[in-house]
Amino acid sequence: GQAVAGAGVGGEDVAARDRADSKGTSFLTAADGVTTVDNSDMDFQQTLDVLITLVADAVEVQEYEQYAANLSDYELDEGDEQIIAGSRYGIEDESPAPKAVGVLAVVGRPNVGKSTLVNRILGRRAAVVEDTPGVTRDRVSYDAEWSGTEFKLVDTGGWEADVEGIESAIASQAQIAVQLSDAVILVVDGHVGLTDTDERIVKMLRASGKPVTLAVNKVDDGASEYLTAEFWKLGMGEPYGISAMHGRGVGDLLDAALDSLRKADKTSGFLTPMHLRRVALVGRPNVGKSSLLNQLAGEQRAVVNDLAGTTRDPVDETIDIDGEDWLFIDTAGIKRRLHKVSGADYYSSLRTQAAIERSELALVLFDSSQPISDQDLKVMSQAVDAGRAVVLVFNKWDLMDDFGRQRLERLWKTEFNRVTWAQRVNLSAKTGWHTNRLADAMRNALESWDKRIPTGRLNAFLGQIQAAHPHPLRGGKQPRILFATQASTRPPRFVIFATGFLEHGYRRFLERSLREEFGFEGTPIQISVNIREKKRRK
After folding, report:
1. What is the DSSP letter of 316?
2. pLDDT tens figures, 39-51
3. Which of the four pLDDT bands, split at 50, 70 and 90, describes residue 32?
4. Which one of 447, 470, 494 terminates a domain?
5. Domain final position from 421, 447, 473
6. Which of the residues 138, 158, 344, 425 has an alpha carbon 20 to 30 A from that of 130?
């Protein structure tokens, strides 16, 4: 008997190839269409694994082509073609690891035009510009690119909170931004001239030791260029006159800022060792983050009196849990604040957002002996919205009586309904009870976050689901799923091509079904639907 491994190869093809082979005189090279496997250094099991993979890949390509054919009668745009081509062979080795890029922060007093400058740099209205100071957004950093150099931009324009003692608040904000960045652009207002607040910010920048490029905004034409002269005396080097509104001088400013970024010591932590998985330990103040870290690290880490005005760089700590090293991000911000400055909650939320953005996995900590607050749920939502893997940790569980446990179970059904997919670990940070369960939950969540479903398998599954539970009729029509693919991982994002709008309830049903079938425990899933029309008959 003759075993032929060649998925998708018809009998005639094989016979034709056999005939050609029988005439062959050179057996040092394989015939066309034959994959060569050099198994001289492999044992039987390894050889078998390679052959199985080859067949599985061939089957995947065949299934892919069968499902992609469903789209042949529909209008597609360029973006669609890319998504579909990408789905054919799977993503190249998962999503590329995040590039190590420098971080540039834009700081300055309110209303000097920081957000306008950020929009100008990003080339789109990403930062929300409003006339009223105090319009805050949750975004902390944006990906930007200038003349071939990629970098991250930290925009403090949206952080202008109405905090009592706004002067000290501006300094605190600038401080957080500077801690997050490798280099800084300080924006001042040419029309207003030098103010006390500008000088305070400069003092703080000096103490931080980060390189600073000075932008004098609202210098709208050559005639106003003289406005920059006054700012030489800040001792921050050459002041660049710019108009963020009109774009004048922004190119020169960026050239200088990126030059300083290239030379900077990178401390933003976006450049931490990439082989360690990055974890943010988040939760509102006093839920026991420090005690959990101490318990995991196995030593008493110093508790610092965090007086406002003492700057520290973010401290990332490598902690061994269950025999594996993990990088805990920015644990400096976790230590207890004994002297609360007004608006401290607001800053802890900014810090949290920044730590989440730098992490892959968020451990969200709750104090189960206290009622769950809105702030607890907000921290949890920040992690989910940022698309990070999530593990929910309920601390002080050993102090709970039966009544308390029932209360939490009830809450689980109501308040936590958007994260029922996250793993829960109930533990006690003080005594170390159950902390060993944490590492498994963390590994699981990251595995799901990285997981990729082959296109053939995904479509076969959605086909069954759709046959059993078709979408409800809308206006006499029934939207159908034509094709689906997983466009990326970290977190898993699915793109579904459909003939009409899929209702929110049906999307939720699809997400639940995907989770039941493929796991995905511990990671958010994103589903986007592209609606496509039939091609017009010519």
Report:
1. -
2. 888 888 888 888 8
3. low
4. 447
5. 447
6. 344
Burial status of residue 290 (CB atoms within 10 A of its CB: 0-12, 13-18, 19 or more)? buried
Which ranges in 69-141 belong to alpha helices (H)?
78-88, 114-122
Tell me: do 321 and 217 sit in the same domain: no
Range of the domain at 465: 455-531
Whether the per-residue pLDDT at 298 is higher than 60: the answer is yes
pLDDT tens digits along 69-128: 888 888 888 788 778 776 655 444 444 455 668 889 999 988 899 989 998 998 865 544
> Do 485 and 336 have their domain in common?
no
| 312 within a domain of the structure (yes/no) | yes
Instruction: State the maximum Cα–Cα separation within the chain, in Å, rounded to a whole number.
Output: 91
CATH number for position 510: 3.30.300.20
The helix (H) or strand (E) run that includes residue 321 is: strand 317-321
Mean pLDDT for 341-362 is: 77
Judge if 283 and 368 occupy the same domain: yes
Runs of H (alpha helix) within 264-373? 289-297, 344-358
**Arithmetic mean of pLDDT over the chain:** 81
Split at pLDDT 50, 70, 90, the class of 27 is low
Q: Is residue 285 part of a domain?
A: yes
Do 186 and 265 meet the contact criterion of CB atoms below 8 Å apart? no
Q: Residue 484: helix, strand or coil by DSSP?
A: strand
Residue 469 located in a structural domain: yes
- Can you tell me the distance from the alpha carbon of 151 to that of 142, in angstroms, rounded to the nearest whole number? 9
Query: Is the pLDDT score of 222 beyond 70?
Result: yes
Based on the number of CB atoms within 10 Å of its own CB, is 433 exposed (0-12), middle (13-18) or buried (19 or more)?
A: middle
Q: Do 367 and 233 belong to one domain?
A: no
Looking at the structure, tell me whether residues 303 and 417 fall in a common domain.
yes
**pLDDT value at residue 275:** 77
Whether residue 133 has pLDDT greater than 60: no
Please tell me whether residues 205 and 351 are part of one structural domain. no
Domain of 245, CATH number, reads 3.40.50.300
Residue 64 inside a domain? The answer is no
The residue type at 417: N
Calpha distance 352→364 (Å, rounded): 11
Give the list of residues 6+ apart from residue 442 with CB closer than 8 angstroms, or none.
277, 279, 321, 326, 361, 363, 391
